[in-house]
Amino acid sequence: MQSDSALRLVWIYPDLLSTYGDQGNVLVLEQRAQRRGIPVQTVHVRSADPVPEGGDIYLIGGGEDRPQILASERLRRDGGLHRAIARGAALLAVCAGYQIMGTTFGGEEGQPVDGIGLLDISSGRGQGRAVGELVGEADPALGIATLTGFENHMGVTRLGSGVRPLARTTVGTGNGDGTEGCYAGKIIGTYLHGPALARNPGLADLLLTWAIGAQLPPIDDTWFERLRQERLQAVLPR
Amino acid sequence: MTQLPLRAQLATALGRTAATLSRVTGRGDGSVIGGRISLVLEPDLLRQLAHDRKLALVSATNGKTTTTRLITSALQELGDVATNAFGANMPAGHVSALSSAKNAPYGVLEVDEKYLPEVIDTTGAGVVVLMNLSRDQMDRAGEIWLLAQKWRRALAGKNTHVIANADDPLVTWGASTAASVTWVSAGQPWKEDSWCCPECGGPIDRRGMDYVPPGTAGSGMVLSPVDDDWACRECTFRRPRPSWALDDDAVIDPRGQRWVLDIQLPGRANRANAVIALATAEAFGLPIERALPRLRQVKSVAGRYTTVERDGRHARLLLAKNPAGWLEAFDVLDPSLPVILSVNAQGPDGRDTSWLWDVDYRVLRGRPVYVAGERKLDLALRLDVAGVPFQLADSFAQALAAQRPGKVDVIANYTAFQQIRSEFGRAV
Predict the structure, then answer these.
(1) Looking at beta carbons, which residues of chain A come within 8 Å of B211?
(2) Nearest in space to B374 (alpha carbons), one of B414, B334, B410, B403
(3) Hey, of B357, B360, B362, which one would you mutate to test binding to chain A, going by the most A CBs within 10 A of its CB?
(4) Would you list the DSSP string of B318-347?
(5) CA trace torsion A165, A166, A170, A174 (10° rounding)
(6) Fewest beta carbons less than 10 Å away: which of A1, B218, B322, B403?
(7) Are B230 and B169 in contact, with CB atoms under 8 Å apart?
(8) What percent of chain B has pLDDT over 90?
(9) Which proteins does it associate with, and in what oligomeric form (chain B) (predicted)?
(10) Taking a C-beta distance cutoff of 8 angstroms, is the pair B161, B129 a contact?
(11) Please, what's the b/e burial string for B23-36 (b: 16 or more CB within 10 A of its CB; e: otherwise)?
């Protein structure tokens, strides 16, 4: 952990990119750190303000086309997130926020819009909207359980050689080529929108482990596990 | 009212037959099926049925059904009013409502936000009422900036008079292409969807209030509406000066006179709905001293706020479908009572439960909380993370049976609410 005392979470642009439950990822990280006795300090960065460089884990969520374009422009102009990543901070980028991390994404009319280039991916608009439950088998190298969540997007994302897929989809669309999301270094991008970490506490712990640089003791996961089992049973073919 | 052409008469007659069949077979209240059959036979029917009537269309994310009911009650002071009282708020429901009250000179129609542009075009309504816009059922409802943009296009260049909530920046933006607007300060407790300017994307500043991060102390707080001014920091878009205002338990009318509302419907949101209804009534020429007594007679709307009873347990039913709605429902809760929460994720609810994470449940700490509904585990985890102790119930009936005899409050989302009503009585 880079900070003196507390784990520093930075939620980027909740005023632009927080369409549906994105706050859940912040709350889950806070809870899982605090239950292990790790103090947490959370900063919400409004889009008019600079992104601080000293955070440990950064989060950016989903949103509509116009706010997505505005957020991309501002992040590029601001440069704070780039400096934080260069310093070794971790990042969870969800849905519209995931697409922004690439080189390009599709705008309101499908036109290519510049991303901020933190991930070697490029996105465009797909034929139809992918809406529904998503299940994926995570990259074994990550050591986390099956991914479960809800997707709601029109994006198609091509992964470059500089990233690895986060998971292979078994239910749902994800990137559109049988994979879902991606990761590189300490950056995770995913189409599991909104509170992705509420359905995947393993992903939350992965981010915490990266930020702290040590293995975490187990905690009581009763409610996380019960929800996961119910959702997986509801959507997986028997 | 003018005679409908023969084909349209046949279409409405067939539609009414189907509606009756739907009701007697217990499939529904008949308002949608009847309208659908009519629309197939005569696509232009809505236009013809709306013709020559004085119409108000009511749209918002929350409070459509209640406000429609309040305006209807007020306008009944002037004459018969056609209305879709049961929330069938798409064109089929509008046809059904207007055809079942053919001779009513007035019409008050609740309109789904997405259908509003089409219904404005078709009906040529003279009055449009816009209350609030916030995130709602994103898996099927779409995006609200885009929605407000479509409202702007639909209102531009028409002779429509709009009644709009000036405290909601997105509604203000959506309404401000209209030829004339009555601005109402109806408040906006839920602000998470309007911290950015819809015109230019710049930050919106609110007087007496710095940006309040969601989920922190102070988010969702209600300021005194007369102070709740807002303006974009980067362009000229700002709150228009309202001529009506909700001021705590009273309304301030355009003459500056203060009237205590004293309505029976509970909560801040319903006082806001009442102020909007009074402003709308005045646009129809009905003065506040005649409209307000009518609003005070409304006790419950389509089952909302009614109490169901079993074995001495009296459960008051509150409907909340999205984060802004839950915030308003919390305001209505009796803090001394236990509360049962029931959440489903069927089609009409939205199949995605992510929105639960936008609701700040911490206000429920310290009172007994019971969790039921088809997606009770989503809610259970949400409450666990919020540090709100709760008990999981197999069903609403079981949660109710677990109460001591006496009163309990219930908040449920759409299909969960309907399930409770059909199991415990549909009395309105």
Answers:
(1) 15, 44, 46
(2) B414
(3) B357
(4) EE--SHHHHHHHHHHS-TTS-EEEE---SG
(5) -80
(6) B218
(7) yes
(8) 74
(9) Forms a heterodimer with GatD.
(10) no
(11) eeeeeebbbbbbbb
Q: What is the pLDDT of residue B13?
A: 66
> CA–CA separation, A39 vs A90, rounded Å?
17
Is position A193 annotated as part of the catalytic site? yes
Is pLDDT at B140 greater than 80 in this prediction? no
Alpha helices in chain A (DSSP H): 23-34, 65-78, 80-86, 96-100, 196-199, 201-212, 222-235
Q: Which value does ipTM take for this structure?
A: 0.96
Coil, helix or strand at residue B276 = helix
Q: Nearest CA to CA, how far is A9 from chain B (Å)?
A: 14
Chain B: residue whose CA lies nearest to A10 = B213
The yes-or-no verdict on residue B425 having pLDDT over 90 is no
Cα B396 from Cα B367, distance rounded (Å): 18
List phi, psi (to 5°) of B309.
-135, 140
Rg (CA), chain B: 21
pLDDT for residue B219 is more than 90: no
> Residue B49: exposed, middle, or buried by beta-carbon count in 10 A (0-12, 13-18, 19+)?
buried
DSSP labels, A107-133: -TTS-EEE---SSSEEEEEEEEEEEEE
Phi-psi group of B402: left, alpha or beta (phi > 0 → left; psi -120 to 50 → alpha; rest → beta): alpha
Report residue A146's pLDDT band, with 50, 70 and 90 as the boundaries: very high
Active site residue B352: yes
- Residues at the binding site of A for substrate are 129
CB of B354 within 8 Å of a chain A CB? The answer is yes
> What digits encode the pLDDT tens for the residues A84-118?
999 999 999 999 999 999 999 998 888 999 999 99
Whether B239 and chain A come into contact, CB under 8 Å, resolves to: no
Across A204-228, average pLDDT: 96
| Tens of pLDDT, residues B342-352 | 999 999 898 99
Full-model pTM: 0.87
Query: Residue B222: pLDDT above 70?
Result: no
User: pLDDT tens digits for B353-405?
Assistant: 999 999 999 999 999 999 999 999 999 999 999 999 999 999 999 999 999 99
Could you give the CA distance from residue B50 to residue B98 in angstroms, rounded to a whole number? 7
DSSP code string of B149-163 = HHHHHHHTTS--EEE
